[in-house]
Amino acid sequence: MYREQYTIMFQVERSHWWYRSMRRNALALLRRYLAPGRQYQLLDAGCGTGGTTIDLQQFGTVTGVDMSTDALGYAASRGLNRLVQGSIEQLPFADATFDAWTCFDVQYHRAVAEERRSMREARRVLRPGGLAFFREPAFDWLRGAHDVGIHTARRFTLDAFVAEIQEAGFRIEHATYGNMLLFPLALLKRSVDRFLPGSPTDLSVPPAPLNKAFEALVSLEGPLLGQARLPIGLSVIVVGRA
User: Fold this and answer.
1) CATH number of domain containing 158
2) Cross-strand bridge partners of residue 133
């Protein structure tokens, strides 16, 4: 991403409804697979500015890896000290190092030349039985102005994404679309983006009442994500086991 996008991300990642609700839902799903009270060794692959890495510490010791020195600088300013610069396609860690691996909206990026390679790397650094959590943007036809700013190279359908993860050697625990409730509004916004390319990116924080309403609405999906396969949404979410 452009440097200014990391700056914006750092400024809004703890307050913007999208980040807050998606983080809350992801953590709720992870709690279904990570035993309470156990201290896991986790790798947050593509940790960015560290807004989610902080909350992953409730599960144990978290190492964040990212290619961007700008992102890692912001992550360090949050108090995170287990940060490594590196590519998710060539992780600088030994085999079977981690109990769990998370990757939140990273493999879509043009800096990732081949997402299958990063999936194989996830499998390599996980211990036998280790957990992998994948979340990426869905449907290439949903591209909008925001995708230009964050350098989107690819979006995924759930079935194709699951097939790639299985090819990397994972057993699928759960797979679903995410953020289904706001799908109609997002579809409308993406349509507007095509005609108004200069419209604000999705990272601008809306007024507080709207921000809270969107967060509450998307968070309603949290209990459903681990129990059912939602038929459509803005994200693909897959939990795999090494």
Assistant:
1) 3.40.50.150
2) 102, 239
